[in-house]
Amino acid sequence: MQRPVIAIISTGGTIARRSMDPRDTVDYAEIGASIGGGDLLGALPQAVRKRFVVRDIPFSSCDSVEMTLARWFDLASVVNQTIAVQPDLDGIVITHGTSSLEEAACFLDLVLDLPCPVVVVGAQRPASAISADGPANLYAALQVASCPDAAGRGVLVVSNNEIHAAQEVTKVSTYQLETFRSPDFGPIGMIEANRVFFGRSINYRRHVGWPAGYGSGAGIPRVDISYSHAGADGVGIRAFIRAGACGIVSAGMVPGMCTPAENVAIDEAVAQGIVVVQASSGYCGGAVRRHELYSRGILAAGHMRPRQARILLALALMAGVDRDAIQTLFDMP
């Protein structure tokens, strides 16, 4: 049987960190050491490694809190180039820190359009920890990336033997292994008994594509997130306006509500031509474009969480998408 050919693009994060103390699952990020993609693969049993032809492509060794949209554009370029020069690839696995993994996966899903599966995977425990989850997650990701049924489903996130759609998943736990959830619709599949199962399909996909002009002078617009709370006075929103924000995502109280003072500041932002998107800070459920938002010229994030809504808004602004078309993207389930 021909072995599937998988490229592993390593970007750092917990899955690629090691501590001197096997009990350390907290301080390794600051005092530990980085390991490469080859080391990650080496942690798998030889019988597992023999199932795949793996090509290691180092990208970075930075922590996920150091990631930016510019770095994710570079990562997307590496993915495109890898496919272009290696047409025999069956799939791509990207290892990434979990703190910003949901943002990275969403970004890649919005800009990439590839013929083979792209799977983003991370870990909650460093490679040196007792019962490290990185090897199991990596093996599961290799299985999904080599599964023909995974193609055409957009970028996928694999963790704890579950498969999630990139635009639906979020990290919910600081240290527990079952950290990635898709709160509104659940995972789209699972890995069980060394087999990949898909339980549902996705009948929509928000997609912006590669913004024309990026890399040849076009910059990344500033888009900020304002987190609402009782008594918020709008100072943060006005600070974003002064900082030159082109867009602001309001992470409102559930189901997407702001204080009166914040609303005044938001209206000031809209009056200055800043695109404002109202999202909800809740765990699940959407922020809909009710009459009050529509009348004030504010968009609604739908089921996208604030951090992912920020990425979509930034890319849409780069692509020159008008407000109605941006709202249509957010209106998807």
Automatic annotation (TrEMBL):
Task: Name the residues annotated as catalytic in the UniProt entry.
Answer: T14
**Which PROSITE patterns does the UniProt entry name for this protein?**
ASN_GLN_ASE_1, ASN_GLN_ASE_3
Q: What keywords tag this UniProt record?
A: Hydrolase
Domain L-asparaginase N-terminal, first and last residues per copy? 6-200
Q: Tell whether Glycoprotein is among the UniProt keywords.
A: no
**Do the record's keywords include Hydrolase?**
yes
List the Pfam families hit by this protein, alphabetically.
Asparaginase, Asparaginase_C
Recorded hits in SMART domains, A to Z, give: Asparaginase
Q: Where are the transmembrane segments?
A: none
Q: Where is the Asparaginase/glutaminase C-terminal domain?
A: 222-330
What GO biological process term is on the record, naming one?
asparagine metabolic process
Molecular-function GO terms, alphabetical: asparaginase activity
Q: Which family does it belong to?
A: Belongs to the asparaginase 1 family.
Please state what the protein is called: L-asparaginase II
Which species does this protein come from? Komagataeibacter diospyri
